[in-house]
Specification:
By secondary structure, this protein is α/β, with parallel strands linked by helices. Helix content is 21%, strand content 30%. It is globular and about 50 Å long.
Length: 281
């Protein structure tokens, strides 16, 4: 019989360990479950899955899981946009809140074994892709080339700066950064993230390659166009769809698109699937 720790439908009590400021209105919240068995069960999540975060007396909201299951700590990176996220931002270390999940299909990382991986992110779109990147680096021998193309509006809006510095210096991985508008201290590339594909010295493989794309709609639209011009097939482009997944288990219908529920059929879809859902890009 499954233990209560394995029941993903019940919120478990979590304790906030520490908070790290990322960019304006975005913070990373490190936490652990009070019950060690619940912590161990949760750590079996897949990159790309999400969880539901409960703020007692306020409400609940879905959150991506930016840590990799290969990492020791669990955390959420959250932008304050409403009452629930604002309540989380107001918590201090030691405070308790609820977490249930993980939910969703996640990225099938084992299916990408032997392939080149290209990660393209804009702004906070790096949050759901971080888990995949860390997972791929932890299993470096399973994959071909690994390339990261990441952009933000300004240097101050670059996410996960310690990770970015590490990826830029690490061997066996290429990390290319850009900003829309530089400042006096910015010496890197300037331009939209898709312009990195044409950067001198960049060679973007198409054959045997899976491209991961996450970011704001306008960035997503143009990056898809750039990738398709390079020869990428729709089935080799994957992303996550953002919807308000109120229940997380396919019951409330808030995230329904056609005949699919983003919370259970996604949030990870190939671009081929996204087109069949009738999503505009």
């Amino acid at each position: 019989m499954p233990s209560p720790a394995d029941n993903i439908y019940l919120p478990k009590l979590a304790v906030l360990d520490r908070v790290v400021d990322e960019i304006t209105d975005v913070r990373t919240f490190f936490w652990h479950f009070e019950d060690a068995a619940e912590q161990a069960a949760f750590r079996r999540f897949m990159p790309g899955q999400f969880a539901q975060v409960s703020l007692f007396g306020v409400g609940e909201f879905p959150a991506s899981l930016p840590p990799s299951p290969t990492e020791e700590e669990t955390f959420f990176t959250i932008r304050t946009v409403g009452s629930c996220s604002a309540a989380l931002h107001a918590l201090q270390p030691g405070a308790r809140f609820g977490v249930r999940g993980p939910y969703g299909n996640g990225f099938p990382m084992d299916a990408y074994a032997g392939r080149n991986l290209v990660f393209v992110a804009g702004g906070i779109g790096l949050i759901p892709l971080r888990s995949c990147i860390i997972y791929a680096l932890a299993h470096r021998e399973k994959f071909g080339r690994i390339q990261i193309f990441y952009g933000s509006k300004t240097p101050q809006e670059l996410m996960y700066r310690p990770d970015l510095k590490e990826w830029e210096k690490a061997g066996g991985i290429e990390c290319h950064l850009t900003v829309d508008r530089g400042d006096d201290g910015w010496t890197g590339h300037t331009g939209v993230v898709g312009s990195l594909f044409q950067k001198e010295g960049v060679n973007l493989p198409v054959e045997n390659t899976t491209a991961f794309v996450c970011g704001p709609p306008i960035m997503f639209r143009f990056v898809i166009m750039d990738l398709k011009k390079l020869g990428f097939e729709d089935r080799n482009i994957v992303s996550t769809l953002e919807r308000y997944m109120k229940c997380g288990v396919g019951k409330c219908g808030h995230c329904c698109i056609g005949v699919s529920y983003v919370c259970v059929d996604g949030p990870v879809f190939t671009f081929e699937q996204i087109r069949k859902l009738g999503e505009e890009i």
